[in-house]
């Protein structure tokens, strides 16, 4: 406590308090200069390509000659370079990764993609209902039917119907999809099952 009183009563502290404000004290930083608020931020020049290993020396003449010899080889011989180097340097052979059970999307595996696509078409259980077109006079009826089975508001259903052709509902059973198609036909629209 005595030290704080002594510090507060010193002339150095009181003069700094006037400069910095009542709650701030810069007594341990006499060379402190506040940053100019009007100063522009410093812009640093970054290299066009970031190389984490730093600059590298250019390849030697021997490496350049070797690369030119490899490039001049026919394609059949270039294919043999990788396995020969792997064997000579005793690198382990890369094993293919099993993708069984993974969903590869549209790309899929090259060999098994076509057979799986055929199986999926044969076993299709989920169907989508797509609105193809509608009569201009029956637009309001079609919007009401769309609202009934999509649980959308009036504006959302209207916007959806105006984007024809558009998918109205996805992942339906065949019976439910046929039921919706019949309702839309009754309202004056044309819908299809995909």
UniProtKB/TrEMBL annotation:
Keyword Transmembrane appears in the UniProt entry: no
Keyword vocabulary terms for this entry: Ribonucleoprotein, Ribosomal protein
Domain annotation Large ribosomal subunit protein bL12 C-terminal: ranges: 127-191
Domain of life: Eukaryota
GO CC annotation: ribonucleoprotein complex; ribosome
Gene3D superfamilies per UniProt: 3.30.1390.10
Compositionally biased intervals (Low complexity): 44-53
InterPro entries for the chain: Ribosomal_bL12, Ribosomal_bL12_C, Ribosomal_bL12_C/ClpS-like
Chain positions covered by the region annotation Disordered: 25-58, 99-119
SUPFAM superfamilies per record: ClpS-like
GO BP terms in the entry: translation
Single annotated GO MF: structural constituent of ribosome
Keyword check for Ribonucleoprotein: yes
Family label: Belongs to the bacterial ribosomal protein bL12 family.
UniProt-listed PANTHER family: 39S RIBOSOMAL PROTEIN L12 (PTHR45987), RIBOSOMAL PROTEIN L12_ ATP-DEPENDENT CLP PROTEASE ADAPTOR PROTEIN CLPS FAMILY PROTEIN (PTHR45987:SF6)
Protein name (record): Large ribosomal subunit protein bL12c
């Amino acid at each position: 406590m005595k030290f704080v009183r002594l510090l507060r009563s010193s002339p150095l502290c009181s003069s700094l308090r006037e400069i910095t404000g009542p709650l701030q004290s810069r007594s341990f930083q006499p060379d402190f200069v506040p940053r100019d608020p009007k100063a522009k931020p410093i812009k640093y020049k970054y290299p066009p390509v970031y190389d984490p290993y730093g600059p590298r020396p250019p390849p030697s003449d021997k490496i350049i000659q070797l690369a030119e010899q490899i490039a001049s080889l026919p394609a059949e011989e270039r294919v043999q370079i990788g396995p020969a180097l792997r064997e000579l340097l005793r690198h382990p052979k890369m094993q293919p990764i099993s993708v069984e059970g993974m969903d590869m999307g549209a790309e899929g595996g090259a060999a098994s993609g076509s057979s799986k696509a055929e199986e999926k078409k044969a076993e299709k259980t989920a169907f989508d209902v797509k609105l193809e077109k509608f009569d201009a006079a029956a637009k309001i009826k079609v919007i009401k039917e769309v609202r009934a089975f999509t649980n959308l508001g009036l504006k959302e259903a209207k916007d959806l119907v105006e984007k024809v052709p558009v998918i109205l509902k996805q992942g339906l059973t065949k019976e439910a999809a046929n039921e919706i198609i019949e309702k839309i036909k009754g309202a004056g629209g044309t819908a299809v099952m995909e």
